[in-house]
Amino acid sequence: MGKNKKVVPSAKFIKASEILKQKATRIREYEVIRKPEERQRLPIGVGSEYWIDEPEYIQAVKLKERLIREFEGEQLENTFAGQVVSNNFGECYCIQDVCSSHFKKVAYEQSKKRIISDLKLVYGIGPIWERRLKQQGYVTIENLREHPRWRSSALQFLELIEDNDVGSLQNWLWRCLPKSHPLVHYLASFCRDEDFALLDIETLGLFGRAIVLLGVAKPKKNSIDIHQYLLRDIADEPGALWEFISHLTEKTALITFNGRSFDVPFIRERLGFYGMVRPLNNPHFDLLHFSRRAWRDQLPDCQLGTLEKHLGVQRDVDIPSALVPEFYETYLKTGNVGPLVAIVEHNKQDLITMTSLFSKLYEAWNL
After folding, report:
1. How are beta strands 51-53 and 196-203 bridged, if at all?
2. How many CB atoms sit inside 10 A of residue 108's CB?
3. 136: helix, coil or strand?
4. Over the stretch 175-188, which tens digit does the pLDDT of each residue have?
5. For residue 234, how many other CB atoms are within 10 A of its CB?
6. 164: Cβ–Cβ under 8 A, 6 or more apart, which residues?
7. Long-range own/partner contacts, residues 289-294 (CB < 8 A, 24 or more apart)
């Protein structure tokens, strides 16, 4: 549909948005921790994303108050460089930006060499058999083409490499290796740069709540193109979802941080809520898994903020993810766009950090 044509939401979507507005204010899904020992009393299974240290909470409240003062009377269109976009499911506000980036991946031949050198990727071969085979001169999976026992499985794997079937190759590796294994990361070299999409979402809470901002970044030579789909109101969610997934094709390789457990299942749930069909079974490189493997012995935790400090990244404006619902709720109640500034900047910085983290991991694997 045209970018400027007004779309009238269906009655079904209007009713859904009203329900979502009510749910947004019912439950606070985090705890403010005043003393470190209080973390030990949190229920089992409650992760660090569900608690906030008191100094961080106070700082965020002060930030919200400052932004409200600074942006009093400002219009959303004058605050964010973007435009209203429309599709068959509704409208939303699209913010576009180009940011410098150090996104890079290892050369294809280097990654291929590493992958086919691991004979354990052939079904039935474990560490003992791999050692025996390499002593016999079968040093790569390509050499196993001539082996009477392992020939069939080796040829099947090599056919996927020849076809550059990244999705099937990733599923193959996941059956043989942990999802955090470096070879899974090296598989990204089989993708073209233009096929990557970095994803990050901001929500009004856990599953069953609305997504209020969807960010997608596409790597270029020395930069990333960022599109952020912002809900001016809850009723914008279906339009924002459709604009967001329009960036994804069957060849798209997703890069996220904890996206396998949170972002992608959350997006699927929201698509299903509006009757949209999109499987999102793309190749997926979740940087949280890789980061835990690479730095778990060096860092106190592998939260994105901790990793940013390790990478030397500084944020000028930021809020904890757990406070996004409160900031957005303040915007809905007051009409003041100040709280949205913090949400948009938080999402954008997450995307920028992921590009650096993706590349930095290769250095960790070579240590």
Report:
1. unpaired
2. 14
3. coil
4. 999 999 999 999 99
5. 23
6. 190
7. 289/178, 289/179, 289/180, 289/260, 290/180, 290/182, 290/184, 290/185, 290/361, 291/257, 291/357, 291/361, 292/180, 293/178, 293/180, 293/181, 293/182, 294/361, 294/364, 294/365
- What is the pTM (predicted TM-score) of this model? 0.88
Residue 221 has what pLDDT? 81
Q: Pick the closest to residue 57 from 89, 80, 30, 79 (CA basis).
A: 30
Look up residue 141 and give its amino acid.
I
Among candidate residues 164, 174, 171, 125, the one with its CA nearest the CA of residue 147? 125
Tens of pLDDT, residues 42-87: 443 334 456 677 888 889 999 999 999 999 999 999 999 999 999 9
Nearest by Cα to 229 from 315, 340, 109, 318: 340
The residue with greater pLDDT, 43 or 291, is 291
* Neighbour tally for 184: CB within 10 Å: 24
Using CA atoms of 94, 342, 79, 232 in order, give the dihedral in degrees to the nearest 10.
50
Rg (CA), the chain: 23
Domains annotated on the chain, with CATH: 11-104+192-365 (3.30.420.10), 108-190 (no CATH)
Q: Residue written as tokens 């793309």?
A: 282
Helix (H, G, I), strand (E, B) or coil at 300: coil
pLDDT tens figures, 82-127? 999 999 999 999 999 999 887 889 999 999 999 999 999 999 999 9
3-state DSSP of 218-281: EECCCEEEEEEEECCCHHHHHHHHHHHHCCCCCCCEEEECCHHHHHHHHHHHHHHHCCCCCCCC
